[in-house]
Design a protein that fits this description.
This protein is an alpha+beta fold. It has 4 helices and 4 strands. The chain has 2 domains: 99 residues; 88 residues, 2-Layer Sandwich (hypothetical protein PF0899 fold), CATH 3.30.2320. 72% of the residues lie in helices and 11% in strands. The chain has a 4-stranded mixed sheet. It is rod-shaped and about 155 Å long.
């Protein structure tokens, strides 16, 4: 039996060595799997961090775009309202000038003609239809009523080659255009 026992011992030893080798291989495999999993977790974490950063940047960019768009829309609304207010002020100023009393208009027309004589020495003057001003009132050669004029005067030389437009609308528009920036700054800061 000693041979059988010796064989049993060899088998046991081989079996034990195989189990140890298998255990070592399994242990190494477990370490490799753990290392691979750790590396995968690290890569996944880095990818997630990168994607989270991209998402945050995209969200921030969209917020900035939305804010910028909202600010632009707000500025458009404010500018439209300013334009409306200024337009209303222009119309109200023009209406006040056009609706002044006949005496106030006559005084203004006299000043306009006096000023216009620096350009045209002895003008004929176009006035609004229904205006009672005479050539003597204005100190001119002729007064011609015109349906085309609502308020103000137009001075013209004898041959019609030179005109000075002093209609209220023309004068107001000229002043308005020249002073619009200053007026806007004063009214709206």
């Amino acid at each position: 039996m000693p041979f059988h026992m010796a064989l049993d011992d060899v088998v046991s030893e081989i079996k034990y060595a195989a189990e140890q080798t298998a255990a070592g291989i399994l242990s190494d495999a477990d370490k490799d799997v753990a290392a691979i999993m750790a590396e995968a977790d690290k890569e996944i974490s880095a990818m997630k961090e990168k994607e989270d950063k991209k998402l945050a940047e995209s969200v921030e960019r969209l917020k900035r775009q939305e804010l910028s768009s909202a600010e632009l829309e707000s500025k458009k609304i404010v500018l439209a309202k300013k334009k409306e207010i200024l337009g209303r002020a222009f119309d109200e100023t023009l209406a006040a000038l056009e609706n002044a009393s006949a005496e106030d208009k006559l005084q203004m027309y006299k000043k306009m003609v006096a000023s216009g004589k620096a350009v045209i020495g002895n003008p004929k003057v176009y006035v609004p239809a229904g205006c009672a001003a005479t050539a003597a009132d204005l100190g001119v050669s002729e007064v011609i009523p015109s349906e085309k004029i609502t308020a103000g005067v137009i001075l013209e030389n004898d041959d019609g080659s030179l005109q000075v437009d002093m209609q209220y609308r023309t004068i107001l528009q000229s002043v308005w255009d020249r002073e619009m920036k200053t007026l806007s700054d004063i009214l709206f800061g």
